[in-house]
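Standup notes
- DV: blocked on the single-chain target, sequence here:
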Amino acid sequence: MRGLLCWPLLAWLLLLQPWETQLQVAGPRCHTGPLDLVFVIDSSRSVRPFEFETVRQFLVGLLHGLNVGPNATRVGVIQYSSQVQSVFPLGAFSRPEDMERAIRALVPLAQGTMTGLAIQYAMNVAFSVAEGARPPEERVPRVAVIVTDGRPQDRVAEVAAQARARGIEIYAVGVQRADVGSLRAMASHPLDEHVFLVESFDLIQEFGLQFQGRLCAIDHCSFGNHSCQHECVSTLAGPRCHCREGHDLLPDGRSCRVRDLCNGVDHGCEFQCVSEGLSYRCLCPEGRQLQPDGKSCNRCREGHVDLVLLVDGSKSVRPQNFELVKRFVNQIVDFLDVSPDGTRVGLVQFSSRVRTEFPLGRYGTAAEVKQAVLAVEYMERGTMTGLALRHMVEHSFSEAQGARPRALNVPRVGLVFTDGRSQDDISVWAARAKEEGIVMYAVGVGKAVEEELREIASEPAELHVSYSPDFSTMTHLLENLRGSICPEEGISAGTELRSPCECESLVEFQGRTLGALEGLTQNLAQLTARLEDLENQLANQQ
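- DV (later): unblocked, structure below
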């Protein structure tokens, strides 16, 4: 690792000099462009008093080698342990002498090691304009130098990634007992230029020399061929290309292209956003129309369904494929009109046992259902499809779980998703489901057995069985399922959900009943007349 500093001879020579002057052997102060520099110093209890003094002298020596000023390098210092304390912000001092006094007065916190908290503070507070940082539009480089001697007691990877995404260049300096994995998780790339590990606090000035050398480096953009298409910005690690507003940097690090507006704005498209020059438009999947708001797509609205999804969570599915299954389920939800009076959705996961993830009556919007689907945790273990079918028949479509009463005539649909052969018998409960009036669909992937899929599914099998050889390609099944499940096109087209107790329904029922009775009376009168005629004919014959 280039960042692992091992210069024994130089180190011995340096140790013969006072700490304050060791960092000035390279020559006069750097005259770099503007820079916002924040030191993040670990002052936890693991840093012994004499070691902290070494860090203090290191900071003082480094300050005297910088070109400090309001229009040059601004410096801020924070220290942390179980809490974070600002020693002085970027805008506080413009002279090294004032900074030195504040550093010499610094008292260690001597508690835990919350490095993630310190990075969060640096990102949100220390590098804010209110604390003295230059506004982002001025494109002044922002550099954080983290000096630590141990393993963080909180998470650092995510918050460090956020800081880097905001344009903060992070150097991670580990001393003695520091955890190399944590240093690499914090630092900017390339890691060999941003991660430094020194064997002891006595040798920390070696990092200072190399760091100062980078600060004093020539303007990389003025010298050498950077090949940037739009603009070159010199950073401590070398030249970096930037693109003009409305353009994005390509992976080659040099070229620029017009920004994909769909990635840069909150477009709100329900299905797909397509950039068109300086604007964009929303698209809907085949078979669905864009609504007047220009963002949402039409859904199934002509009928109502109680839909229960049985999802195979056995170990053969594997975690990454289970995530694809959840995404597939949410794509099904996308074309349903989920509401208490529209389509209700329930989800059951099965492996060696069965678990109701959420029943039919729990969620009233598609957004709630999709969020619940994403939160489902993978079960693993075996494949008891028969047990899952029994659970669905006995419990999932009960009124207690949110299914609507049979008197309302709401279609009940079961969709079984599996990737292999069941380890128990499915025939009894597959037949029972259809006897109970549940319309069954079977979706198989990979090693799913066609005979079992056909046994689970309703007739005709061509309309109720779907298969995909691979999890990554199963999205092509969506349109077939939409045509079958979507009420306006499939099983419940034209179904009108009406309560038999509503006044209009009662009047309609009464009218139909009276009409039927009148017809029956007329038929009886005709039958009586014929019987009388037959009796007269028999009497005459006698």
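- Follow-up: The CA atoms of residues 59 and 103 lie 8 Å apart.
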